[in-house]
Write a structure and sequence with these properties.
The protein is mainly alpha-helical. The chain has helices at residues 31-40, 44-52, 63-75, 79-96, 99-116, 119-136, 139-155, 159-176, 179-195, 199-216, 219-235, 239-255, 259-275, 279-296, 299-315, 319-336, 339-350. It folds into three domains: 31-137, Serine Threonine Protein Phosphatase 5, Tetratricopeptide repeat, CATH 1.25.40.10; 138-217, Tetratricopeptide repeat domain (Serine Threonine Protein Phosphatase 5, Tetratricopeptide repeat, Alpha Horseshoe), CATH 1.25.40.10; 256-351, Serine Threonine Protein Phosphatase 5, Tetratricopeptide repeat, CATH 1.25.40. It starts with 30 loop residues before the first helix and ends with a helix. It contains 17 helices and no strands. Helices cover 77% and strands 0% of the residues.
Length: 351
């Protein structure tokens, strides 16, 4: 699964990555600062609880506070709440003529729409954020928007465009010294290389993603990049290494209350089980991950899990159910415009 830049509250390059943050015993005067610190530490549930405690205070209706809370909700898989809060923030930023706030709100809303499978709207949101970033000369937002637009291109099978945009984002993050952004973009580059069968490049990118995420020290981010490296190990028939990575990734995702991240770990466990011809375990894990994906509105994850379940069901001789799941996967990929994933589904189904 791709990682979207700016869908979590990244610390600025001048802030210490992964600095420990204490949960305030009472709501502080600067609520935005407290929320930003919690998000930077990966404590999304704490951030959302803090925001809920602001419901009856003017602070809770401030656009910067609402956008930070929207980020926390999104990272916890609460996409409806994330959308509602981000839209409210966007409306207030527009009324104030605040282009910077509009830019950040649009970028987050683009990430939410991508997660939901609304590719056209996601692309529009990211493109508008990129346009505003260029107007404002905001190097960080340019990097984030390039990374995010690249993920749209990659899903739609435009691999060359995706690589060019990811490399542009990576160069900007390197100039800024933004390790979180580098981890996100290296992870995404690794996905492109893995799907193209360019194993050395994929391995280098995955290792760089983990190296930078380790320094950032945010559990949810580290879980995602470890899952990506584990999936590469599955593709290269190294189940023992994949299992070690997945155990660590699953623990980190659960500690961060990252339901989507934990479900993605389960999806890769299902893939590994398919490789080992453990059909029932593959089915159980794929169905478990798909249930979480559907509950949280994660369209790509749900479709990928349906494809895995279809293959396991066919091997178990449950042909009617297998065809049903395969149709769910195909429909999901078509709605996403996910050319590469659809081609892979057809190839694997015919093998």
């Amino acid at each position: 699964m791709p990682i979207f830049s700016g869908s979590a509250a990244s610390p600025s390059p001048t802030e210490p990555d992964g600095a420990p943050v204490s949960t305030p015993s009472a709501v502080p005067d600067d609520s935005a600062q407290a929320l930003r610190a919690l998000l930077a530490a990966g404590r999304f549930q704490d951030a959302l609880e803090l925001h809920r405690g602001l419901a009856d205070r003017p602070d809770g209706r401030r656009e910067d506070v609402q956008l930070l809370a929207a980020t926390a909700a999104t990272r916890l898989g609460e996409l409806d709440l994330g959308t509602s809060l981000a839209e409210k923030a966007l409306q207030q930023y527009r009324r104030r003529g605040d282009r910077d706030g509009r830019m950040r709100s649009l970028n987050l809303l683009g990430a939410i729409q991508f997660e939901r499978g609304n590719m056209a709207e996601a692309g529009q949101r990211f493109a508008e954020a990129l346009r505003l970033g260029r107007q404002l000369g905001d190097s960080l937002m340019l990097a984030r928007a390039c990374n995010n637009l690249a993920s749209v291109a990659q899903l739609q099978g435009r691999s060359d465009d995706a690589v060019a945009l990811y490399r542009e984002a990576l160069l900007a993050y390197q100039r800024l010294g933004d390790r979180r952004g580098m981890a996100e973009t290296y992870h995404n580059l690794g996905l492109v290389y893995r799907q193209a069968g360019e194993w050395r490049e994929a391995e280098d990118a995955a290792n760089d993603a983990v190296r930078h995420a380790d320094v950032v020290g945010e559990g949810s981010l580290l879980a995602l990049v470890l899952t990506g490296r584990a999936e590469l190990s599955v593709e290269r028939d190294d189940p023992a290494l994949a299992q070690r990575e997945l155990e660590r990734a699953g623990r980190l995702a659960r500690e961060a209350s990252d339901a989507i991240g934990a479900a993605d770990v389960t999806r890769v466990e299902a893939l590994a089980a398919l490789r080992q011809e453990n059909w029932q375990f593959a089915l159980d894990q794929a169905e478990a991950a798909r249930s979480v994906a559907l509950a949280h509105g994660s369209a790509q994850l749900a479709a990928e899990c349906a494809g895995i379940a279809a293959r396991a069901l066919r091997e178990l001789g449950r042909d009617e159910e297998a065809t049903d799941r395969r149709n769910h996967a195909e429909r999901g990929f078509r709605e996403l415009g996910a050319t590469i994933l659809l081609e892979r589904l057809d190839l694997e189904w015919g093998s």
